[in-house]
Amino acid sequence: MSTDERVPEPAPPEASAGQQLRQAREARGWTVALVAGRLRIRPALVEALEADDYAPFGAVAYARGQLRNYAALLGVDAATVLQGVSPPRLDEPGKLARNAPELHPGRPWLVRLGGAAVVVVLAVLGALWADANRERVPEVSEFVPPSESTVAPEPAATPVATSGPDASPVDVRSPAETATPREVPFTAADPVGQAADVAGSSAPAADNQPALAAEPSTDAGLAELRLQTRAVSWVEVSDSGGQRLIYELVSPGRERTVRGVPPLRILLGNAPAVEVLYNGAPVALPAGEHVVRMILGSPPAAVAAPPSPQP
Predict the structure, then answer these.
(1) How confident is the model at residue 95 (pLDDT cuts 50, 70, 90)?
(2) Does 124 reside within a domain?
(3) Cα dist. 284→144, 166, 277 in Å?
(4) Above 90 in pLDDT, residue 37?
(5) 250: enclosing H helix or E strand
C-alpha cells in the first residue's frame, strides 16, 4: 500500500508551464500583444512560451528566465511554473540552436546606433569631398592661354599713340585758334626756319582736324576696370566686341587695370579674393560664390560726326 501511495508524488503536473501561463493570462483578460509589450519581447516568443516551445530562445537560461518573468507578470508562482517545464525539450541542442539569431529582442538599439554611425561617417566624407571640390575651382592654371592674350588691351591704346607729338599742341585749341598763327608773320627773326615751321605745323593741323576732333568721344566711350587680388585667382575680361582684355591666372597682390568698350564681360575664379572697381567705383560681388560671371556697363551712346570745315 505504501508503494501505491508514493506513485502520484513524482507525476508531472496536470498542466505544463505554457498552459499555466496561458490560463493565467486569459483569466486576466490580457492579450498576447499586451504581455509581449510588458515583457519587451516579440509576440511570437510569448506564443512559444505558452506552447512549451523553447527552441526560438536558443539557450536554456534565457528560456527559463522568460518563464520567470512571465510568471511574475501574471502573479503566478515561478517555481510551480518551472516544474511544468519538460527538461528534454530544454536540452535538445538541435532546436535550441535553430533560431539562435532571434535571441536579441533588444538588438534594435544596436542597429540604430550602427545606422547613426554610418550616417555620421557619410556626412563627414560628403563635407570633405565638397570642400575639396570647392577649393579646386580656382586652380585653373592648366587653362592659362599663351602670353599673347595679355597684350589684348594694347589695341585700345593705339589711337592715342598715333596722335603723336604733332597732335598734342593742337588738341586743346579751337579751329579759330589754330588758324591764328598762319595769319601772323614771324619772318623777322628767322625767315627761312620760321616759314618752314609755320608751313609744317599748319598743314598737318588742317589735315588731321576731323580725326582729332573725334578722339575725345572715343576715349569717353571706354570703360576702366581695375582688379586687385588677395590670392591666386582666374580672371577673364572681354569687351563688347568679344576682344579679350584679360585671360590669365592672376597671382596674389597684383593689380590689373584695363580699358575697353562696354559692356565688359567678366569671369572670376576664387571671386572672394578679388576686388573689382568699375570706373573707380567698387563693385559688390555675390557673397559665398567662388565662381562669378557678370556684365558691367552699357554700350556708349552714338556720337554725331563733327561738321566739316567750311572753305
Answers:
(1) very low
(2) no
(3) 26, 43, 9
(4) yes
(5) strand 244-250
SS3 assignment, position 229? strand
Q: How far is CA 115 from the centre of its chain?
A: 25
Do 226 and 214 share a domain, yes or no?
Answer: no
Look at residue 305 and tell me if it is in a domain.
no
Mean pLDDT, to the nearest integer, of 240-261?
93
Residues 18/55, Cβ–Cβ less than 8 Å: no
Q: Using alpha carbons, select from 48, 45, 42 the residue that is nearest to residue 89.
A: 48
pLDDT of residue 293: 95
Say if residues 240 and 266 touch (Cβ distance below 8 Å).
Answer: no
Residue 202: domain span:
169-220
Three-state SS at 90: helix
97: domain CATH number?
1.10.260.40
Is this structure's pTM higher than 0.90?
no
Mean pLDDT of 279-285: 94
286 and 209 part of one domain: no
Single-letter amino acid code for the residue at 167: A
Tell me, yes or no, whether 137 lies in a domain. no
Q: Percent of the chain, pLDDT > 70?
A: 56
Contact between residue 135 and residue 128 where contact means Cβ atoms under 8 Å apart: no
What are the φ and ψ backbone dihedral angles of 128, each rounded to 5 degrees? -65, -40
Q: Which residue has the cell 538588438?
A: 107
User: What backbone torsions phi and psi does residue 114 show, to the nearest 5 degrees?
Assistant: -65, -40
**Which DSSP symbol is given to 252?**
T
CA angle 222, 256, 234 (to 5 degrees): 110
